Amino acid sequence: MSDSFTLPLRPLLEKRERPDTLPQEIAQINAQYGSFRDVTEESLRATIAEEKNKDPWAEEDEAEKPAAEVDTTERMDQLYKRRAEITQFAMQAHMEALFALDFVSLLLSKHTPRQAELSMSAYLKQVAPLGSLNAEIVNPPPKSEAALQDIKTVSRGWRIQNFNAAANKLLRSATRLETEVASETKYWDEVLAVKNKGWKVCRLPRDRQALGVQYGFLEATPIFRDRGLAALRRADDGSLLLDKGLIPQKIRTVRVRVKTQGQFTGCSKVSWSLTNADSIEGRILQARDTVYEEELFHEMVREARIMGSQGVTTRQNLVQVPVSEEQEVLLDLVDVDQGEPADTESLSNEHDTLADAVAHSIRILLAYAHRQNLRRRTQPPPPLTPKRRHVPEYQLLRPVMAYLQHTAHVRSLESFMGDIVGVLKAAGLRCGFTSAPFSSVRLPTVHASVPKVETLVKQFLMPFESTFTGNLLTPESSFCVKVRTNTVSPPSGTYFEITVNLPHHPEVKPPSRIGLPTEAAAALAHFMLLDIVTTIANKGVKSPEGTDAGKGVLSWEAAYAHHGELRALSGSGNNKKMKVSLSREELTVQTYPLRGVDVSGSAEKGKTANPRSQSWRADSSESRPSLMEFVEEVSQDRP
Amino acid sequence: MHELLLFASVPAHQHHELLQQLAGLTAMQPRHRLERRLVFKAYRKPGLVTTRVGASQDVQGADLQRLNKMLNGGMYYTQVVGPVTKADFGATSLSAMSASHDADVSMSGTDQSSYCYENQPWKLEFRDIPEAGTRSAVTTRLMASASLPKGDIAVPMNAWGYSFVTEYMVEGDVFVQNDIVIFLHRVLLYPQAESQDLHGPRRQLPAYHELTPLERTGSYVLQAAITVQDGSNQEMMKTASQHLFGLREQLKSAVRLEQADRLSLDTRAK
């Protein structure tokens, strides 16, 4: 810009012709170097070389060397001395100024005594009466022509010097302004770019001169909402700086880990790389993510505190959520760039997907909570009361925990049922069940007033329910198990609701609410056992009655159905007892001969040579007779 | 409950701009609101015993005194407010059309969008005359609201001793900022009824464009209200008015919120 600056700032120096300068210069050279005769090329070269070789700093070095060697005490001395000097100078200057003031005051006291008196020192007032000094204009004696010429030249020189200095200053400030304008343009371009990306740019409420960008979440808790605003400052070269104030610049995120049987088996992804992490956009995005993650963790800790009764524990920077007996989920807030120290602990990546899913769910749930906040905020408020409204804890961990617990319970029950059915199949019994996991989760019907996303998420905040239904062996008997998990409202945890329809045992009523999966499994196994006993008894009833084949065939009747005991009475004294036991591994049937005909069953037992027993397992490959064949076989009326 | 209010008048040309400003201030989208407002006036049923006042020797029981005070105390106008939607308007022509097609078909239920007076929800809003002589620069008044049965409201109101006076429409947008409800609204009048007798509320609504604003220039009223549960709690009342003053400061450059003239909000029936 200074090149294109056409306004002449520097004073024009007119080259005056000085015709008689040469004789003067010759005279000067003669005086300095002596006669021209002695000046040869060599001598001149030697002089130049000497000048060149001479170290320009030599003198100064010598002067500084001793200064460098002074030790600290001397330096202190020097410091005090210098300070004393400075003070002395200042005192002197002060005194001189006071003298000058006194002088001027005394001089003025002739004309304005009242005013001048104020600025006079007390001493002067004592020694000199007011108005004792006067000033008059005197005509100076005329100066000589040469002196006038001198003054003229000197003043001309001064003026030129001042003009030069002013011109330099102007040009310097012009360049400074130019760079300033360039950097300002760059700053505003970047601010515009940020705004065009859709970020909200506004003035800072505290610092009205600065611009800020809003990247936080309006519906967040106030401390996090207020952190969602950062100043856009200008660096010296005009690039944009994101100034978050006192908040540390670290990028943090919530990490989810899964621990199975005391060992880490999964970890969620901690760092996801931003494409342009160094651009201002990238930095804003990072700041936004960090504030979201920190709020997420804050809210989780808040929620975890009220979940202490459900086994959730919190440490300073860790939340532990038990999912099932052997699995728990750990959530903590980590720095993204700190690397992955958990690598050594992590033994497998088996549950990485689960950890990722949990990580995504809690984030979705926080976004949902934000939406709920907006909804609550825009409703007409209740009347003002002295009581403060309690902000309920967000539902972040509770739905996740409910889901995982529910899944675990349903899985365990399902596998138990599968095993039982396998065992029964191996014994040649036909039995089946259908499971409907998460039958309570229904895809929402579209509702105009509520956005679809919200209705979808809302489904997962309700209690979960799964159902198992199946038919038992005897016709018309069936069972149904409802598994409900609820961790949101007070009756928390999972419970099983079993309903059975056993026409042969109308008195059997299952317990209304079973809390433990093992108990539920035991109850189901018991009903199965009852059913098997009934089947065997029915079988015995059917076959002998119809035909005369009943001769020689014993019929079984249930003696203690709840213990799996049956009894067959025969006329020939070959009374028999059968014991059926069912577990998830195997079905065992044992028969014992029974001596004595006491109906109460307390007859003395004498084991003959052949107590028979047969068991079926789901995994046994060898072919065995089915249960019914076995029963037929042992029903023969012989010992 | 008490209500603290500040008002401002907003010219029509400023309306859109102010909507934007309020949306920014409250960080929410405006909620459009259309309300039917029916004005009822309390009256004394004829045949009521009016006891003489001033007969000092006539000593009355405390209960009787209180009852008399209630019965003979001030009479007030009250409003019955019913929310409607824009789709409800102009249903007259629709039902009239269907009526001309088939006179036997009942009005309600023939058309989905037609206005159904029988299902109109109502709310009773009682507002006292603003308190006099308060130092504070806000309008303070006693208020109470109650839900009313749906449908034809004139009959129960008559039974309670209120007679129908007139009705109008209020159109506006609601914002919520913390505890303050900001209602930017204007009053719309029904077209002059040519034949309809004005002894009861309308059963059909005219087309929306037929409504005319009460203020000819189409200007709006900005009302900032905050309700306090317990009006005798000075601390709360003070907090509430502080909140209102805070809003007034924030809106200073846009509108001037101020106290309303007390007597213009007089709801007493003389």
Q: What attributes does this structure have?
A:
A: 639 residues; alpha+beta; five-stranded antiparallel sheet; 14 helices; 43% helix; elongated; B: alpha+beta; Hypothetical Protein Pfu-838710-001; eight-stranded antiparallel beta barrel
Mind describing the biggest β-sheet of chain B? 8 strands, antiparallel, barrel
Number of strands of chain B: 10
Note the overall shape of chain B: globular
User: What is the C-level CATH assignment of chain B?
Assistant: Mainly Beta
Low-confidence stretches of chain B: 93-112
Spans where pLDDT lies below 50 across 5 or more residues of chain A: 543-550, 597-609
Total discrete domains of chain A: 3
Q: What amount of the residues of chain A lies in strands?
A: 15-25%
Distance linking N and C termini of chain A? 123 Å
Protein name (chain A): RNA polymerase II mediator complex component SRB4
Organism (chain B): Aspergillus fijiensis CBS 313.89
GO cellular component, one term (chain B): mediator complex
Pfam families (chain B): Med18
